[in-house]
Write a structure and sequence with these properties.
By secondary structure, this protein is an alpha+beta fold. The chain has six helices and eight strands; from the N terminus they run ββαββααββαααββ. The chain has two domains: about 170 residues, no CATH class; about 60 residues, no CATH class. Helices cover about 35% and strands about 20% of the residues. The strands form four sheets. A two-stranded antiparallel sheet has the order 1-2. A two-stranded antiparallel ribbon has the order 3-4. A hairpin with a 4-residue loop joins strand 1 and strand 2.
Length: about 250
């Protein structure tokens, strides 16, 4: 296999894995069993992890009741008036009673995820949010216009659960099979790029402590609020001691 990443074009994506895997056997399809490895952890309503419950990594079988898009899940979280009969075949669980219970569980999970996110940010975590573009295509699949894709409550909910699962999985690998774990390593930026960014900061009277994640995070928020039309900010590299950023004029 030649590809090591998935490519997203304006009209389609080219998956890293064969489609029979990425879109079928390794994808959750409603009302079908799927083999999985589950990360099981317990958190309280306020977002704190239960210290008395040891997270577990277990072989499992998942049979999902329905397939909900981010847009639909966000509307349900916001308690929009969506009836059971208005759902598509894939969106509709077996009974209306199951649908109501799923909706209730989703709203509760969203409250927990919001508290988890708040605690993560307060502890100094970097908030990295790059805007996605959504293109409108003509009949020849050529882009004719675009808009910024808004992220809803469901996007942040999934992100928090994913980050928590990734952290627990990383700790499990480190503690159990450290020598066999596959680790992704980012290359350092060259010194010239960092000097360029530092010079930009000085010229524009920006003051930021790169070694302090919370200070850097506060700076990025301030920069975005200063002129969100003029700047787009991306984190290029994060290492143990350095945070390199890229600020692009629009």
């Amino acid at each position: 296999m030649q590809r090591a990443t998935t490519y997203y074009l304006v009209h389609k994506n080219i998956p890293m894995l064969p489609r029979v895997l990425s879109e079928n056997l390794c994808s959750l399809i409603p009302k079908q069993d799927r083999l999985s490895i589950s990360c099981v952890f317990r958190v309280f309503e306020n977002g704190d992890e239960d210290p008395e419950f040891k997270p577990k990594i277990k072989l499992s079988v998942i049979n999902s009741s329905a397939k909900w898009s981010y847009d639909l899940a966000t509307k349900l979280i916001q308690e929009k008036d969506i009836s059971y009969n208005s759902l598509s075949v894939d969106e509709k669980p077996a009974t209306e009673q199951i649908f109501e219970q799923m909706k209730k569980n989703l709203i509760i999970l969203n409250k927990i995820a919001k508290n988890m996110r708040q605690k993560r940010i307060e502890s100094g975590a970097l908030v990295i949010e790059n805007n996605d573009l959504e293109f409108e295509l003509n009949e020849q699949n050529m882009p004719i216009t675009f808009k910024i894709k808004e992220r809803g409550d469901a996007n942040f909910l999934v992100e928090e659960c994913m980050l928590k699962a990734n952290k627990i999985t990383a700790e499990f690998l480190y503690n159990n099979i450290k020598s066999m774990a596959v680790v992704r390593r980012h290359a350092f930026l060259n010194d010239n790029k960092f000097i360029e960014i530092t010079r930009y900061m000085i010229n524009n009277k920006f003051n930021v402590e790169f070694q302090d994640p919370k200070a850097l995070n506060d700076f990025l928020i301030k920069l975005k609020e200063t002129n969100p039309i003029k700047y787009t900010v991306n984190i290029l590299h994060i290492s143990q001691n350095n945070f390199y950023i890229n600020i692009t004029f629009i």
